[in-house]
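From the pipeline queue, job 12 of 40. The input is one protein chain; the requested action is below.

Action: predict structure.
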Amino acid sequence: MFYFSLLERSDESPVSEATTALPTAPHVLEYPYSRSVGPVLGKFLGGLKAGVLLGVRSPSGKVLCPPLEYDPETGEATGDFIPVGPAGTVTTWTWTSPRQGQPLDHAFAWALIELDGADTALLHAVDAFEESKMSTGMRVRVRWREERKGHVHDIECFDPESAT
């Protein structure tokens, strides 16, 4: 009730800044727990550490990369791991300027890349150097980090095949 009465005051009786200031309190949002990646993503990340890209076969026969534990169409468990890539085809992309925390320190493309042998696309950076060198349907190849740790960042980015 008091809140509404403050809003309904006329211009003859202005509300001071001190009267309308809302209280604040510091708050830190955190998740103080760890989560295992599970058997499917764990094997995928192990493959990245070894310099191998893995997909997983769904019950319908599609190869999903990145792999999922369950088929997104049916909810059934997925099956065998299948090596895919290391090259693929850009299915769509967008050009971006460099920003702090991104994988490259210069302009690059974020792209969905359908790796050879996969039926789904992986989102990653493509280092084409110039926007004019990017196109849907272009072929790209993975560029691995020298030191790999079993993390998605083990893929430094993808390079246009003509540049490799």
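Job complete. The two ends are 69 Å apart (CA to CA).
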